[in-house]
């Protein structure tokens, strides 16, 4: 393994490792996590294109083909679960855990890929690759609350946390108090401490999102582990900030929509409303650009507009 490959891995303590999936060749944008417990568990896989790098990192961390016990995805969006089929094939003894609303799409991803194709068009395969089917017999579907055995008395409890997606899970490690938040708390940019919401269509729902953030606060986690990107320790402040960002974006889009339903008008309104708020991020254009590529303002505003239309504003 080269020094560059080793830089892909960060030891977070207590046998928890962040693995940078190098989504679309960007570093520091999408993370998978290994809990190297008695029953090793991978949380998130990254895209299908990221799978070879993730498999290589697991091998470097001593996880052989028959060692990985569980693969868990917080939700089935392709930046989080696109590599499930490839990684499941490389680790044939691993059980795949997903919310019940997403299970059928991992077994038969045709509809999921068709939907993603409508959004991303010809760049779908270039950016994400294609999600391979997973044997349905290996998929464990969970609902509201469930427990995953990590061995040695250590567990990972899954909590249904919709709002970003109907099939979203938060995951709490009993040994560390780490809460894997997926996209339910939005994006965290460690370079500046900036947080932004993740509100894409078709599932975004403000009320569900705020309830999920309230649930996360009740869990009193020691640390938040963001899929985008990395650990945050000031958990109460971060969760409150996540809720604040959601309300601010929705308010800006709602006011814009009262004047015109045009997407471009709402995008401009959000950018104007948040310009000072995100000044530190704007001062780092490379960081700003890579997170915008992952989580564009246009896509998030489109999700909010869709929700407003469904709820009659």
TrEMBL record:
<dbReference type="GO" id="GO:0016787">
    <property type="term" value="F:hydrolase activity"/>
</dbReference>
<dbReference type="InterPro" id="IPR036866">
    <property type="entry name" value="RibonucZ/Hydroxyglut_hydro"/>
</dbReference>
<feature type="domain" description="Metallo-beta-lactamase">
    <location>
        <begin position="29"/>
        <end position="228"/>
    </location>
</feature>
<dbReference type="InterPro" id="IPR050855">
    <property type="entry name" value="NDM-1-like"/>
</dbReference>
<dbReference type="InterPro" id="IPR001279">
    <property type="entry name" value="Metallo-B-lactamas"/>
</dbReference>
<protein>
    <submittedName>
        <fullName>Glyoxylase-like metal-dependent hydrolase (Beta-lactamase superfamily II)</fullName>
    </submittedName>
</protein>
<dbReference type="InterPro" id="IPR037482">
    <property type="entry name" value="ST1585_MBL-fold"/>
</dbReference>
<dbReference type="Pfam" id="PF00753">
    <property type="entry name" value="Lactamase_B"/>
</dbReference>
């Amino acid at each position: 393994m080269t020094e560059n490959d080793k830089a892909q891995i960060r030891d977070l303590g207590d046998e928890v490792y962040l693995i940078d999936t190098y989504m679309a060749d960007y570093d520091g944008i999408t993370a998978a996590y290994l809990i190297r417990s008695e029953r090793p568990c991978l949380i998130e896989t990254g895209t299908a294109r990221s799978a070879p790098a993730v498999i290589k990192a697991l091998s470097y961390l001593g996880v052989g083909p028959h060692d990985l016990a569980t693969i868990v995805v917080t939700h089935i969006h392709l930046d989080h679960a696109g590599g499930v089929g490839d990684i499941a094939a490389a680790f044939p003894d691993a059980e795949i855990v997903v919310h019940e609303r997403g299970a059928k799409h991992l077994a038969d991803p045709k509809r999921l890929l068709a939907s993603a194709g409508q959004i991303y068009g010809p760049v779908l395969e270039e950016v994400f690759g294609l999600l391979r089917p997973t044997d349905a017999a290996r998929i464990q579907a969970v609902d509201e609350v469930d427990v995953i055995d990590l061995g040695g008395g250590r567990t990972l409890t899954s909590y249904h946390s919709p709002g970003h997606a109907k099939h979203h899970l938060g995951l709490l490690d009993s040994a560390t108090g780490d809460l894997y938040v997926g996209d339910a708390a939005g994006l965290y940019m460690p370079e500046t401490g900036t947080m932004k919401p993740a509100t894409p269509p078709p599932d975004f729902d403000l009320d569900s999102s705020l309830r999920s953030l309230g649930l996360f606060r009740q869990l009193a986690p020691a640390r938040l582990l963001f899929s985008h990107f990395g650990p945050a320790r000031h958990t109460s402040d971060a969760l409150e900030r996540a809720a604040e960002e959601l309300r601010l974006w929705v308010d800006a889009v709602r006011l814009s929509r009262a004047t015109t339903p045009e997407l471009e008008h709402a995008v401009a309104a959000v950018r104007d409303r948040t310009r000072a708020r995100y000044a530190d991020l704007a001062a780092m254009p490379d960081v700003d650009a890579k997170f915008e590529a992952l989580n564009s303002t246009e896509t998030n505003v489109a999700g909010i507009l869709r929700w407003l239309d469904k709820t009659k504003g």
